[in-house]
């Protein structure tokens, strides 16, 4: 079968993601080794600002064109974010979780910084699939990143990394090697990876039909316009879904858990 445009897009996003998160390759290979080479993704996550030019709906375009449909809406008041998730009828394709920062809820100073970053994006680039993993479209000195960090970890992450997958997520339901997150987390801890402990190692429960855990983002050297600094980049997530009363697996997200998962890219203590 010839590769679909969506498959090549997702593959290119995976390759970009691995350059920022070398731990993900080691973890992927660990699970691939235990599961006949097969690791299925539950979802990928993308981030953006809510400025018209780059808003959530613009980021969703290539996925909508590939047949994805919007399924769930989420709000994160303290983090000043909203999000949607999209599903495709092909169960082999990962769900796509896209969030956007409500820029007008930040200080005037932060708004001015973010607007000036977004001004540097060429609107025509939004029409290209490669936008999804095109990274930063702006120059940013380290002090400006630090200023955003004081108000929003999410804004700071976006300002440093731009447009690229924030994380991929292993579908634990598809693993033969593991049927619970406790053992999977223990394996990762034994292998020396650090996990996000905000709200506990496991977020969610069978009661909400979804359990999730994630690594803490890899730290990588980022070139700001004036200096190079090591900061958290991308993380890897693990999701175990439970059946609804009708027997089908729950496919949505859980806002209270997602709220904690966002913190996997935090720089400062929780
Ligand atoms: C998204 C965090 C939420 C989930 O699976 O609940 C999430 C992000 O960090 O951009 O991925
Ligand atoms: Ni996620």
Question: Whole-number radius of gyration?
Answer: 18 Å
Low-confidence sequence ranges: none
CATH fold-type name: 2,3-Dihydroxybiphenyl 1,2-Dioxygenase, domain 1
Ends apart, CA distance between termini: 47 Å
Family: Belongs to the 2-oxoadipate dioxygenase/decarboxylase family.
Enzyme class: oxidoreductase
Protein name: 2-oxoadipate dioxygenase/decarboxylase
EC number: 1.13.11.93
Your description of this structure?
Its EC number is 1.13.11.93. Its cofactor is Fe(2+). This is 2-oxoadipate dioxygenase/decarboxylase. The strands form 2 sheets. The protein has an 8-stranded mixed sheet with strand order 2-3-4-1-5-10-7-6, with helices on both faces. Strands 8-9 form a two-stranded antiparallel sheet. It is globular. The protein is α+β, with helices and mostly antiparallel strands and 270 residues long. It contains 8 helices and 10 strands. The chain has one domain (5-265): 2,3-Dihydroxybiphenyl 1,2-Dioxygenase, domain 1 (Roll). The longest helix is centred in the first third of the chain and has 16 residues, at 5-20. The site of 2-oxoadipic acid (OOG) has 12 residues, from strand 1, strand 4 and helix 8.
Secondary structure layout plus pairing:
Layout: H1 5-20, H2 22-34, E1 41-49, H3 56-65, E2 69-76, E3 81-87, E4 95-101, H4 108-119, H5 142-149, H6 153-161, E5 167-171, H7 181-190, E6 203-205, E7 210-214, E8 219-223, E9 228-232, E10 235-241, H8 255-261
Parallel strand pairs: 1-4, 5-10
Antiparallel strand pairs: 1-5, 2-3, 3-4, 6-7, 7-10, 8-9
Helix pairs in contact: 1-2, 5-6
Bound molecules: 2-oxoadipic acid and nickel (II) ion.
Residues 45, 47, 97, 99, 166, 212, 237, 253, 257-258, 261-262 line the site of 2-oxoadipic acid.
